Every structure is written in C-alpha cells, then in structure tokens.
Amino acid sequence: MTAKSQTRWTGEPADLLRVEKGFRLAEVDPRSTPGFDGTKKDGRADLADGVGELDELQERLYAQSRVEKDTPAVLLVLQAMDSAGKGGIVRHVIGSVDPQGVRLKAFKAPTAEERAHDFLWRIEKETPPPGFIGVFDRSHYEDVLIGRVRELAPPEEIERRYGAINDFEKRLTDAGTRVVKVMLHISPEAQKERLMERLDRPDKHWKYNPGDVDERMLWPAYMDAYQVMFERTSTASAPWHVIPADRKWYARLAVQALLLEALEDIDPQWPIADFDVAAEKERLAAT
Amino acid sequence: MTAKSQTRWTGEPADLLRVEKGFRLAEVDPRSTPGFDGTKKDGRADLADGVGELDELQERLYAQSRVEKDTPAVLLVLQAMDSAGKGGIVRHVIGSVDPQGVRLKAFKAPTAEERAHDFLWRIEKETPPPGFIGVFDRSHYEDVLIGRVRELAPPEEIERRYGAINDFEKRLTDAGTRVVKVMLHISPEAQKERLMERLDRPDKHWKYNPGDVDERMLWPAYMDAYQVMFERTSTASAPWHVIPADRKWYARLAVQALLLEALEDIDPQWPIADFDVAAEKERLAAT
Which residues of chain B are within 8 Å of residue A208 when distances are taken between CB atoms? Predict the structure, then answer.
C-alpha cells in the first residue's frame, strides 16, 4: 500500500470489503468503517488527497488507450437500496475525474423495446471502451433483485440470469476490463431518515417517489435477494464488495480506494510517441 | 447582472462576445479579455465562485425535468483550432457540474457508416434530453470547416450545409433547447507554444498528432472558413460567441458565464411534489 491517500487504511480496502465464500450480509454493520482508522474529518481529507491520484491514473489510462488499442477499461457497478448514496458517489468520486474519460450510465426501469430483448441487451451496449472508466448506476443486477422480489420473471428465468451474468462479466474481464462491483449497504433506519429529509425539504421533493416506500416495505426480501446475488455472482474475476454506507464519507472514500486499486493494478503508462519527436519539433518550428 | 461570480464583468458576457452583423474575426485579439475588469487571479477566483451557482442551477434544471417533460436543455457547442483549450473547458467548467446531468460528446472524424448518412445524422442522435446540459466537443461545424478547407465535399454541398445547420438548430431552439455556440479563438503564436510544449514533455506526447501541424499550415484558410461560418450560421436564436483564448483563465470564465446566463434565462424551479407530502410522511413514519 503506497498511495498517499490510503495511509489510514489498516489493509487493502478491496480485501477488507470483498464478498468471499461464507459471507453473510446480515452480519455487516452499515454504520461500521471497516479497515479505516480515522475520523470523518480524516476521511474527508483523504478523499480530497485521492482526487489528484485518481485524476492522474485516469489520464494515463486514457492516454495509453489512444495509442494501444488493447488498453483495459474499468467498470464500476453500483447497486443499493434507495437513498444509500449512489448519486453522491457519482458526484463526489466520479465527479472529480475528467469527464472526457468517463462513461456514466444510469439504468432505469427497462423500456418496452428493452423488455423485448434479453435483459443483457441494453447492458452490453453501455460497457466502457478501452481507456475509459464506465459507471453503471444500477445495472443488470436489477434483473435479479427487483426482478426476484417483485417476481417480474419466472423463477427459472431468474435462476438462468445468475449464470448469464457470470458469463457476460467473464467476457468483460477476459477482454481486460476491471469490473468493480459495489453494493452500498445502508440500514433501514438511515434510509428512513434520508427519505424523511426528502419529504421535509421542498428542494428535495423531486428526489422522493412514493414507490420508494413500497420497496422499503419489502426490505427483508431485498436483503435475501442481495444475499443470493452475492452467493451466485461474486466470482474470482469480478467479486462483489459490500460497503457500509450509513456514513457517507466512508462509502465515498472506500469506492475511491477501490477505483485507485483497480487503476494501480492496471498501472497505465504514458505512451511512447509513435512519431519522430525531433523531426516534429523542426517541422513545427518552421511554421 | 446579479450573479455573484460576475461582478467584475463590465457587461453581459453574452452581449460582449456575440457575433453580430459586420463581425470580423480578424479584428478580435486572442490575448484580450473583453468585458472583464480583473486580473488572472480575480478570474480564477470568480471561476471558483461560479461553480456553486452553476451547480445549483444545473440541479434545479435536472429536478424540474423529472416532473415537467418540456423542461429545456442546454447545448454547448465548442469549436476551435487545435490546442485552443476545449479540453480544459470540459475539465474545468463542465467538470464542476454533477456528471449525472451532463451529456458530453466528442465528435471525431466520421466513420464509414456516418459518412454514408447525411452529416447531421450522427449529430441529431446526441442532442441533450430535457433537463440536461449537452456538450459537443467539435460538432456539425467541422463539416463546414475542415470540410471546406480540405474540400471534403463539393462546394454546392458545403453551401447547402449552412442552411441545413440553421434549420436543425432552429428545431432545437423551437423545442426549448438553449444552443450556446462558442469558438475559442487562439493566436497562431500561442498554438505554436502549446504544441511545442506537447513535444517537449513525454507525458504530453499522446496529445500531439503530426496532423496538427498540417492543419496549422492552413491557418488562413481556416480563419476564412470560420468567418464564413459566422456569417452564415450566427442566427438570432443560436448566435455564435467568439472567446479570445490565449488566456485560458479568461476563456474558462467566459464559457462559465455564458452557461450561467443560459441557465438563468431558463430560470429552472424546484418542482412541486406531485404526491401528498403529509400522507407520504405518515406512510413512511409507519414503516
């Protein structure tokens, strides 16, 4: 662990947060801050420190991809119950990166056209090109979460999807994409507070949807669906990470740390010029 | 002019920079800072001040569009000679806005499929939906700039395009989109310096393309093509703005000011809840 922004971590965030065999979601405390030995103030300072690192790594990745066509991409998949803080991650972690290197896609309820295709049809079209950081705000996992809880498809189709997802992600990782899957884990109490705040503030009403309470009433069924999802789709090449999210500052710092680790693992390099630098200098000087 | 960030402007930036009848590009000094009565330090401070305003206006616009389907969009069109600072605008002005409300599209040389269609085919697909800020890094104007200078199409086709562009943009503005067209105006001397810096720094080599010098040698022809473009496509509903760009801080501040004006003109409002707030509070409290 060498990154300046991560000196208060007691271990690799990816190791600490990864879903391994035997993982039980019910045992994760949404208010905890696994592996981070610091206060909220420390966390915010470290997040700010990480911005420069993430920025440089992203620019190197993008630069490399301009010359090397097989440069990896990074895909961050965000799943969570409502109000867990996906939007804040996009704004405060992804928002610090040059927008020219980011491909952000928010998946809503599928359209009629999308429903007429396999559930992965609309997903595959949005995977990031080489050198880009892709972000899925919700994803194909909705099809085994709300899909399962609301019985939007027959049980055998839901079963089929876990395998289809693993195959799809295997193709991505085989092609060099780092798939960073994150579930932001909020407590029902924190959700209640956040939804109530949306109702209390007229400038937040637009973020509130009566359907949020309907989903909230199915909390245990959703937790079951997440648990099954982890068991079936946390693979060696594309593992899940569960990030306690009652403390927003921790969740943001942890996602930034996961992205930094993925990029450091790629270790992108400034590409070597594919032209004669000295000759170009002369040519330019003559103009 | 009420916006806090704009108190050092001596007039409305949009008025000062707009291309009107009789405009001559050759008369614009790329090192000038029209209408801004302050230093580089002031400009940077004002840019930082503008971030919060732009952020809130964008969030209001997005919020309104969640409820009102006919909410306007904003489309920023960026054109310039190489190294004039389009990337810096995207990074430092657009990069300060929540990425969830931005649709950024960089247009490269058209693909074979795109060339098989009318030149506006690939453009129309990328116009921003209601409530979004769209950014075109290069645009349909390439088809009357490099298209004209390099004779990529017959003269009568280039002629036809000016009218087709005006019709296209009229459809956009009639539908409520604010089209903010910006040419960043750099001097050939400043370009030479910036290209030389790219050649001097190995971490900048990837930004250099030998083709840049080829285009540079056609500078007067490009300036002529811009002049004709301004005359033919600076319309009342979608005027051009020429922003002197030798001073990066000024160009960024001016683009931010144009975006602020477009958003203030829309004057987006937090939407009124389309549900019964009191009833929802009770329903939520009961969970």
Answer: 273, 275, 280
Q: A207 to chain B: nearest residue by CA?
A: B63
Instruction: Specify the fold of A4-285.
Output: Rossmann fold (3.40.50)
By Cβ distance, the residue of A64, A67, A213 closest to B287 is A213
Contact B275 A192 (CB under 8 A): no
Letter for the amino acid at B76? L
Q: What ipTM was reported for this prediction?
A: 0.92
Q: Which fold has domain B4-268?
A: Rossmann fold (3.40.50)
Residue A6 pLDDT class (50, 70, 90 cuts): low
Percent pLDDT > 90 in chain B is 97
Q: Which residues of B touch A217 (CB under 8 A)?
A: 287
Say yes or no to pLDDT of B2 above 50.
no
Question: Closest Cα to residue A158, out of A170, A172, A143?
Answer: A143
Between chains, do B275 and A98 touch, taking CB under 8 Å as contact?
A: no
Share of chain A above pLDDT 70, in %: 98
Across chain B, mean pLDDT equals 96
Q: Is residue B110's pLDDT more than 60? A: yes
CA distances from A148 to A78, A112, A157, A162 (A): 18, 19, 10, 11
Q: Enumerate the β-bridge partners of residue A244.
A: A185
Phi-psi region of A230 (alpha: psi -120 to 50; beta: other; left: phi over 0): alpha
| Closest approach of A232 to chain B, Cα-based (Å) | 30
